[in-house]
Task: structure prediction
Amino acid sequence: MAQSKPQLFTITHPAMGTVFTLYIYAGSREEADAKANPVFDEIDRLDDLLSNYKETSELSRINRLAAIQPVTTDPETFQFLAEALDWSARSDGAFDITVGKLMKAWGFFRKQGRVPMPAEFATLRKQTGWQKVRLNAARRTIRFTSPGIELDPGGIGKGFAVDKAVSILRSEQVAAAMLSAGSSTIYALGAPPGETGWKVEVPDPRNPAIVLSTVTLKDMSLSSANCSEKHFVLNGHLYCHIMDPKMLRPVEGMLQVTVTDPSATNSDALSNILFVRNPEDSRALMHSLPEDSALVIAGTQQKSVCYLMNWKAPVAPGHC
Result:
């Protein structure tokens, strides 16, 4: 019997505070669902492991105990923490997984935006800082050198889950699929039939109706960092959910960062790093990553500047 011609199926699944969407080519809906189920099971498993909203998660257990004693954790969680701290070191702290208390102080944890009182910042300074986390690879332990530290997986957790889910797709010998974590991090596996890759549109943050650039991805991830979905406005001022860990404040003067990288974990972290850092300071980091590219839009809605770092895709004329 001849095999059915592959068709594109779209399957969604809520997890990690967002909606994951799998675009997959398969011979039938039944085949697509059969391929998708273990992918979403893997994402749910990682959500149970790394969530800071679930008290039963491994990350929550670490947050409770690591300031008291070294905590032995599983190999996967240890790998996740090691990769997060590696990006902290490479970015000189622009990426920092210890912003848990900082996110709560600014009201982003339960979406109740607030500006901390001046007296709170001295305590927050003591409760923030990736250098206060110690990993022991031989014993697979983690400990905090200061009380009050809380890990927050935002900025890298979804990318880590996407990478693990894509490895499931590869093990199932899926030839063409794209997995999106709420559109902030995407991985394109293979290419649609007859195409060179998956076409992904990057919107203009100054006017979302405009497509700023269209990227063709094959075995590549793309992550975008912006404030459009997660922010609050107080007294006419917009506060973004992406924190500058050194300033202990939401980032100002940045509209959007889009990054491509062969790893979704890396693109997720790197998009946040470039959002926090001055664009000129990011060029050296991007130069050290020859497989990566970035499109950075800094400034305000009224006055902005584009920075293209190894970005090969065309950009809409007059918009950068």
Summary: The two ends are 53 Å apart (CA to CA).
